[in-house]
Design a protein that fits this description.
heterodimer; A: 270 residues; mainly alpha; MetI-like fold; elongated; disordered C terminus; B: 322 residues; 76% helix; globular
């Protein structure tokens, strides 16, 4: 009971963050890129809820607008890696045999390479907009999904209802979609949730290093990138709030994932 | 048996490195823009077509990709990683300067993470249901959700700007003799950030394993037969250590990835910072070199962990004996 309350609480937290960033255009008091050089480095207070940055831009509005960018990049990349992972893992698990062994060996090789390294080398020449960013994160993030889908497929393939369906001559695509895939949805959902947190982490980290989303677009990572200098002169609010928001978002996702993972595990091990 | 096993693992490592080299080479090759222009730098507009062609020929850029990859690989195996575009020095020299710093940071953080997580995880795991047990579960999720670099920013603003007790960035005093204690002072902040964001999740993994292990049948039987609590604990710990070691192995790639960001935040003179710098300045030979070296470090650390597991776990050592 207690864990269900926790789950509901974190879902609401995440919901509020997503809602306010999606409708940032209506909720934010200023345009995220509105500069006002008369009001630089204002501390949090009236007029500007969370203060202003080195160009007099409202930190609160930038937080909402930046969240939209960060969460969009994360969502798109996670959807992409979901599709790739389901295709690769599903194929490997369903076909089995030598193909499965070979594909899994290849996957092991990919897992060994730090994904940040691959992303960095792509970024070296693809420093485009936020879409290329989403593309790169998605292309490098499907490995864990593929693993989960494969093991689910292998487990389900031997299940009685699948064997039965095969015996009745159900078309293969129907078995794959409505039996195998449908029954692996809970596991896929959990791994996708963790991928989502990871995607946010990567976007934020890269933008923070100045090699992610272009500086003109506000994102949580970009805000922290500029905050590095502002903190040295004592403008702590510019760096504090984006970080807290990132922290809470990832925390919410992780807690939701944990809460959903636990009953799963109990069911499978029983 | 052992020789065969080591050979197999080595093969796997070689394949990984080949894929890494493939990736780094072809990604660099696919980069838009003319390498000749990049080489020439700021005044590239003044180049005419013939000069561009001459530069291309000098650097063998007009040969087919596979031939380029082949000769690049041969040179790399000989230890020649080319010359950095920006610094004009051999890449291998630059890498050699940076490697000790990265190894120092990696070694120190890994040591404290393992010691800390084994200590916390064991205490929490052995007392299932206690406050520590529940506390660690929540705390580990919380600490692992903090972006490491943001924590770093907070640390800098507190310890370096406000209190002024620790240096905010760098690897040693400029102009100082660079003694051990000097370096240690610079190591504290980056290492603390990495340890703090990792130790919880490692401890939690061990804790869950110990809890799973304690519920198993053999523990009940041992207890019923009057085996001392100490012996039982030893057995549980021994059995729980394999998945833990495996977990460390699995997280090592992302661990290296994470330290890249922390390194560049604190301007720690290591490989990670070098990688970021070479991405920003589009210094491709340097980038390829550092990617290869990081790949090698990952492969070596995985090999060490595999070897540890192999020597500790008789099940693995005896192979497929059922």
């Amino acid at each position: 009971m207690k864990s269900r309350k926790m789950l509901a609480f974190w879902c609401i937290v995440l919901g509020i963050i997503v809602f306010s960033t999606v409708f940032s255009g209506n909720l934010a008091p200023y345009e995220p890129n509105d500069m006002n050089l008369d009001e630089v480095y204002l501390s949090p207070g009236d007029g500007h809820l969370l203060g202003t940055d080195h160009l007099g831009r409202d930190v609160f509005s930038r937080l909402l607008g930046g969240g939209k960018v960060t969460l969009t990049v994360a969502t798109v990349s996670v959807l992409l890696s979901l599709v790739l992972g389901v295709l690769y893992g599903g194929f490997s698990g369903y076909v089995g045999g030598i193909v499965d062994t070979a594909l899994m060996r290849l996957l092991e090789v990919f897992i060994t390479i730090p994904s940040l390294i691959i992303i960095l080398s792509f970024q070296a020449f693809m420093q485009g907009g936020m879409w290329s960013m989403a593309l790169i994160i998605g292309v490098t993030g499907w490995l864990s999904t593929a693993r989960i889908v494969r093991s689910e497929f292998i487990r389900l393939k031997e299940a009685e209802f699948v064997q039965m369906a095969k015996m009745f001559g159900t078309p293969i695509w129907k078995i794959i979609i409505s039996h195998l895939l449908k029954n692996s949805v809970p596991a896929i959902f959990v791994v996708t949730l963790f991928n989502f947190a990871n995607a946010i982490f990567i976007e934020v980290s890269l933008s923070f290093l100045g090699i992610g989303v272009p500086p003109a677009i506000p994102s949580w990572g970009n805000m922290l990138y500029y905050a590095q200098n502002d903190i040295l002169i004592g403008a702590w609010w510019i760096g504090l709030y984006p970080g807290i928001l990132i922290f809470i978002t990832i925390l919410a996702i992780n807690f939701i994932g944990e809460a959903l993972k636990d009953p799963e595990r109990r069911r499978f091990s029983a | 048996m052992t020789v065969k096993w080591i050979g197999k693992r080595m093969m796997m490592g070689v394949v990984v490195l080949l894929v890494v080299s493939f990736l780094s080479f072809f990604i660099m090759h696919a980069a838009p823009g003319d390498p000749a222009t990049a080489f020439y730098g700021g005044n590239a507009q003044t180049l005419n077509a013939a000069e561009k062609e001459r530069i291309s020929r000098v650097f063998s850029l007009d040969r087919p990709i596979t031939a380029q990859y082949g000769s690049w690989l041969v040179e790399t195996l000989k230890g020649n990683l080319g010359i950095s575009y920006k610094e004009g020095r051999p890449v291998i020299t630059i890498l050699r300067e940076r490697l000790p710093n990265t190894l120092l940071l990696f070694g120190v953080t890994m040591f404290f993470i393992i010691v800390g997580s084994v200590w916390l995880g064991t205490i929490a795991g052995m007392k299932a249901g206690s406050i520590l047990d529940k506390g660690l579960s929540i705390l580990s999720i919380a600490t692992s959700s903090i972006p490491a670099f943001w924590l770093g920013i907070l640390f800098i603003s507190f310890f370096a700007v406000k209190l002024g007790v620790l240096p905010s960035s760098g690897t040693g005093e400029i102009g100082g003799e660079g003694g051990f204690w000097d370096k240690l002072r610079y190591l504290i902040l980056p290492a603390t950030v990495i340890i703090f964001t990792h130790v919880g999740i490692f401890a939690r993994f061990l804790q869950e394993n110990i809890k799973d292990e304690s519920r198993k049948y053999y523990v009940t039987v041992a207890r019923a037969n009057g085996v001392t609590e100490r012996e039982i604990r030893k057995g549980i710990l021994h059995n729980a250590s394999f998945p833990y070691l495996n977990y460390i192995g699995m997280t090592i790639p992302s661990f290296f990835g994470g330290s890249i960001i922390v390194e560049s935040l604190f301007s720690w003179n290591g490989l990670g910072q070098l990688t970021i710098k070479s991405v920003v300045t589009k210094d491709f030979p340097l980038l390829m070199g550092s990617i290869l070296l990081i790949g090698m470090l990952v492969v070596i650390s995985l090999f060490i962990i595999d070897f540890l597991m192999y020597s500790l776990n008789p099940k693995l050592r005896k192979g497929g004996v059922q």
